[in-house]
């Protein structure tokens, strides 16, 4: 039972629970961003540059064919349109995370220390010593 209770203590720590919540929210946010990019941003962008569907852009290296035994051999291509979509998705997610971190940092920033009304006691003492040494 020692291992079970130790695991329970580990799993119920605040950090682990926070991490689990973050992963779930991150996965949902990733899906939202994917849909935003694939269905909202890229279609009008493709239309503006000549009716291009970015998800279909590819460099065909070898077309699909039928082998000697009658089996279909799949095409070989580099699907750079999907890569462009992924870059746009990453940029949106990175910007959103940047804005969240910036807001958190603004909330965590310590209030500036108030300026002292006059010189500190140490500065006053050093000034008196300096003036005493000068008068000698």
Protein model, in words:
The protein has a two-stranded antiparallel sheet. It has a two-stranded antiparallel ribbon with strand order 2-3. Helices cover 65% and strands 8% of the residues. It has helices at 2-11, 14-48, 80-108, 121-135, and strands spanning 59-62, 65-66, 72-73, 76-78. With 136 residues, it is mainly alpha-helical.
Q: Can I get a quick summary?
A:
This protein has about 140 residues and is mainly alpha-helical. The chain has helices at about 1-10, 15-50, 80-110, 120-135, and strands at about 60, 65, 70-75, 75-80. A two-stranded antiparallel ribbon has the order 1-4. Strands 2-3 form a two-stranded antiparallel ribbon.
What keywords describe this structure?
mainly alpha, two-stranded antiparallel sheet, 136 residues
Distance between the termini: 81 Å
Secondary-structure element pattern, one letter each: HHEEEEHH
Rg computed from alpha carbons, rounded to a whole number of angstroms: 31 Å
| Helix content, binned percent | 55-70%
Roughly what fraction of the amino acids lie in strands? Answer: 5-15%
Average pLDDT for all residues: 85
Strand order of the largest sheet: 1-4
């Amino acid at each position: 039972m020692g291992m079970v209770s130790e695991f329970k203590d580990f799993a119920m720590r605040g950090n682990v629970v926070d991490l689990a919540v973050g992963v779930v929210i991150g996965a949902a946010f990733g899906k939202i961003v994917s849909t935003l990019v694939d269905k909202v941003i890229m279609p009008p962008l493709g239309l503006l540059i000549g009716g291009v569907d970015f998800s279909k852009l590819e460099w065909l290296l070898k077309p699909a064919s039928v082998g000697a035994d009658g089996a279909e051999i799949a095409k070989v291509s580099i699907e750079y349109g999907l890569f462009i979509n992924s870059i746009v998705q990453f940029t949106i997610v990175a910007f959103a995370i940047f804005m969240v971190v910036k807001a958190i940092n603004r909330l965590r920033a310590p209030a500036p220390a108030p300026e002292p009304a006059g010189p500190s006691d140490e500065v006053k003492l050093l000034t008196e010593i300096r003036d005493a040494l000068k008068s000698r």
